[in-house]
Design a protein that fits this description.
six-stranded mixed β-sheet; eight-stranded mixed β-sheet; 17 strands; Heat Shock Protein 90; 3 domains; 580 residues; single chain; alpha+beta
């Protein structure tokens, strides 16, 4: 009975906040009472009581008794399931998932009129409590009135005690861990000023002493809102920008047509500028908000990380949100505790394909049959295709970037290759690119700039290549871009330089270069080992691909390939031997 699926205390507390908002509350308070206890070698604060207070419409005596019953609720019928609540059964189930006793006061005509009842698991286990006690008039304990910011003419107070299942042991840790999740769940309500959520810590033995106070701010994983919990400079302005237009999908269910909305966002150029933006406060904030946000009636159910590539830190720079109404709960498979949409998460096109059917044919058949799973498949396809475009966009944003802090280490290989090329020139070796080294600077710059612009390289990278050529004297430059064809890289001798263009759509880029380019400062030892293993495997596969290429050649072409391999090996020896 107690293992009812709540991930942690923050999600259980959110169930109570759902009830408050459903009751029309404009102010909700999370009140955490603690006291100092003696541990084995020191004293420490420990959480003792948690209260959730609101100024909503309150409950009558009958409604209060019903709200505390397991298997009963105030929204059991579909016509009553219009808001963020589901069945109206969340109060007892969320409470006992974290504590052994819950006390509830609710009033509709001043706190003097408060009705009271409770649940106590110890009394239930012993057989002393066989049904919810009949609600009766009882005053709210003075301490809750003293720590509250305001008490409404109507409202409800839920108090948890005997907190045996809460993983966080102090009032501050409960609030710290809850405010990120609560801010994300209720971001639309907070952003639109529909509700204010106050969080307050207090000493239960000296509750007149001023505690710590926080007010929840919207935490938008799309990063399109103003005035959010994102650190400056993006607390007051959006960090992302919309990617494409909001798409609308129609689902016919129970004889009515309902709309589902899907939208995407991507980091703007400013937020990813500079060195290692992921290590900056706003980048760290984004790393905690990765995934597809599933929103029901303006309230987030979950942040689904199914679509997140876990090893890629650039995944923090996109957002995706799907929004639907409670009328589609059965279609999406919304859980009773409103923490996930199981049908949406678990859908697999192969489960719906009949013998010999293509994916397209299966979706068309489902639509013709009026099966809403056809639209869920469309949603999955739309998410996958848009994320593919977004990832390409993010790679273009990152053209030419390296992850080390110092410019010296960032271009160390290019500098060594430049010096070794000069040595080869001095002993008589000549390359096509060498012819343009003596052209006027203006002409060389024009040629280089034009070539990079033809590749649709960002202006920042263009200016970086120009600066590295003329200020630092580098002959070699790497840029990343999309390329037609199957080549992993191509090169252009332009303006006295050799520009090496890496095809970031080629698997070799993802399985080798990208792994080596990523920031290592925040990676764990296990993550670093995984990257090295994948990079080693990628390099080995690259060699084996060449080996197979030679193996399949015949006659003169086979000899040419062997000669190329030997010639490349001689220059590679010269370039690499100084790294020993």
């Amino acid at each position: 009975m107690r293992d009812n699926g709540y991930k942690n205390a923050a999600y259980a507390i959110a169930e109570l906040i759902d009830n408050s908002i459903q009751a029309g509350a404009k102010n909700v308070e999370l009140l955490c009472g603690e006291k100092t206890v003696q541990l084995s070698k020191r004293t420490s604060n420990r959480i003792q009581e948690i209260g959730v207070l609101d100024n909503g419409s309150g409950m009558s005596s009958d409604e209060l008794g019903m709200a505390l019953q397991f298997g009963n609720g105030t929204h059991l019928f579909p016509e009553d399931q219009n808001g963020i609540g589901k069945f109206g059964m969340g109060l007892p189930s969320s409470s006992i998932s974290q504590c052994k006793r819950v006390d509830v006061w609710s009033w509709q005509n001043g706190i003097e009129s408060a009705n009271y009842s409770y649940l106590d698991l110890k009394e239930i286990t012993s057989g002393e409590m066989r049904r919810v006690p009949e609600p009766s008039k009882r005053n709210i304990p003075a301490k809750w009135i003293e720590v509250a910011e305001s008490i409404g003419e109507s409202g409800t107070l839920v108090v948890w005690t005997d907190l045996d299942r809460i993983m966080w042991k102090t009032a501050k840790s409960i609030i710290r861990n809850s405010e990120h999740i609560i801010g994300r769940m209720y971001r639309y309500f907070l952003h639109n000023d529909d509700v204010q959520i106050r969080m307050y810590t207090f000493d239960i033995e000296n509750h007149t002493h001023k505690g710590e106070e926080y007010f929840a701010k919207a935490n938008d994983p799309m990063y399109l809102m103003h005035d959010t919990s994102c650190p400056p400079p993006y607390s007051d302005k959006p960090m992302f920008e919309p990617f494409g237009n909001t798409r609308t999908f129609e689902i016919e269910h129970d004889g009515k047509v309902h709309e589902v909305y899907l939208k995407f966002s991507v980091a703007n150029k400013e937020s990813r500028s500079g060195t290692q933006p992921g290590r900056k406060p706003h980048g760290k904030h984004a790393s905690k908000n990765q995934g597809v946000s599933v929103v029901r009636a303006q309230r987030e159910l979950e942040l689904n990380d199914t679509w997140v590539t876990s090893y890629d830190p650039t995944e923090r720079w996109w957002g995706c949100e799907i929004h639907f109404s409670p009328a589609l709960d059965n279609v999406f498979g919304v859980s009773n505790n409103k923490q996930f949409a199981r049908n949406f998460n678990a859908i697999n096109v192969d489960d719906f394909k009949e013998d010999g059917e293509t994916v397209h044919a299966a979706k068309e058949r489902l639509r013709e049959e009026g099966d809403p799973n056809g639209v869920l498949l469309d949603l999955h396809h739309a998410i996958n295709s848009n994320l593919s475009e977004i990832r390409t966009h993010l790679k273009k944003q990152s053209y030419g970037k390296r992850t080390n802090d110092s410019k010296r280490s960032r271009y160390n290989a290019e500098r060594k290759a430049t010096d070794l090329t000069k040595e080869r020139q001095e002993v008589g070796f000549h390359g096509e690119s060498d012819d343009d080294e003596n052209l006027p600077k203006e002409e060389r710059e024009k040629v280089i700039r034009q070539e990079l612009q033809n590749w649709e390289v960002s202006s920042d990278v263009v200016e970086g290549v120009i600066a590295n050529t003329f200020n630092d004297g580098l002959k070699y430059h790497f840029v990343e871009a999309n390329m037609d064809g199957s080549a992993f890289f191509t090169l252009r001798p332009k303006g006295g330089t050799i520009i090496i263009k890496l095809n970031f759509e080629h698997p070799a880029y993802k399985n080798l270069m990208e792994l080596l380019y990523e920031n290592t400062d925040e990676a764990s030892e296990e993550e670093l080992k995984d990257r090295l293993d994948k990079a080693r495997e990628g390099l080995q596969l690259l060699f084996m691909a060449w080996a197979r290429y030679e193996d399949e050649l015949e006659g003169a072409r086979k000899q040419v390939a062997e000669d190329v391999r030997h010639d490349w090996g001689r220059i590679a020896r010269q370039f690499l031997e100084r790294n020993d």
